[in-house]
Amino acid sequence: MRTILLIDDEHRMLDLLALFLEPHGFTCIKVDNGKKGLEIVEKEKVSLVLLDVMMPDMNGWEVSRKIRELSAIPVIMLTARSDKSDLVKGLEFGADDYITKPFDERELVARVNALLRRTKNEEADNSNTVEYGDFVLNRDSYSLHHKNIEVQLTLKEFYIIEALITRPKRTFTREQILRTAWDFNTYTDIRTVDSHIRNLREKLKTAGFPIYDFLLTVWGIGYKWN
Which one of 62, 83, 89, 153 is least enclosed by Cβ atoms within 10 Å? Predict the structure, then answer.
């Protein structure tokens, strides 16, 4: 049975999320602050995190960032704010998707299943690594290696790199990357692709990867792996 970690300071919201998810075969762990949530991520085997943005002491953006330091576990942020800059900020801090409150049961379950389906497909893949020159993409650890350097990727970063590196020289439009990495993307702004690419480049550059020689922008179209 798949376990979902619910992090929200409102107990009524925790109960509602569990009410929506448990009939679909999920086990829910409910915590009311980010610190407790991080402890669960470290100790328990969790399939996915549903994380509220507006919480006291440690907000959802900070919790998402710290989760990314520990794990590539899928994270969906819950927000009552529909401002695109806030939504993009959540993705920049490591979230894989977001849901704007209020939402209904069908949307919640669809987004959760979409992320879990992608994770399951990766685990079922017989090939655990993808190699391209000095680069090795590890499907078990969701990490990218270049010679002796290793960088941990978020789930979205992993899917973007996987799509590009398994089809080198091919140019992907932003729409194609969106479909590849987000799956259930009805409410996902196309600009989030550029945001993820920008953050991914900066992360890999900081680690010492020659990323600007490989992850290229094709102006007016999208991106490709050279």
Answer: 83
Write down the domain spans for the chain. 2-122, 127-225
**Dihedral (C-alpha) 90, 94, 95, 101: value to the nearest 10 degrees?**
-20
Task: Give me the residues of the chain with pLDDT under 50, please.
Answer: 125-126, 184-186
Q: In what order do the strands lie in the sheet with 215-218?
A: 172-173, 222-225, 215-218
Structural class in CATH, domain 2-122? alpha beta
State the chain's mean pLDDT as an integer.
Answer: 85
Using one digit for the tens of pLDDT, what is the confidence trace for 174-203? Answer: 888 887 777 544 456 777 889 889 999 999
Are domains 2-122 and 127-225 of this chain identical in fold?
A: no
Given CATH 3.40.50.300, say whether it is the number of domain 127-225: no
Q: What are the pLDDT digits (tens) for 34-66? A: 999 999 998 888 999 999 988 888 888 889 888
Backbone dihedral angles phi then psi of residue 186, each to the nearest 5 degrees: -55, -40
| 3-state SS, one letter per residue, for the chain | CEEEEEECCCHHHHHHHHHHHHHHCEEEEEECCHHHHHHHHHHCCCCEEEEECCCCCCCHHHHHHHHHHHCCCCEEEEECCCCHHHHHHHHHCCCCEEEECCCCHHHHHHHHHHHHHHHHHHHHCCCCEEEECCEEEECCCCEEEECCEEEECCHHHHHHHHHHHCCCCCCEEHHHHHHHHHCCCCCCCCHHHHHHHHHHHHHHHHHCCCHHHCEEEECCCEEEEC
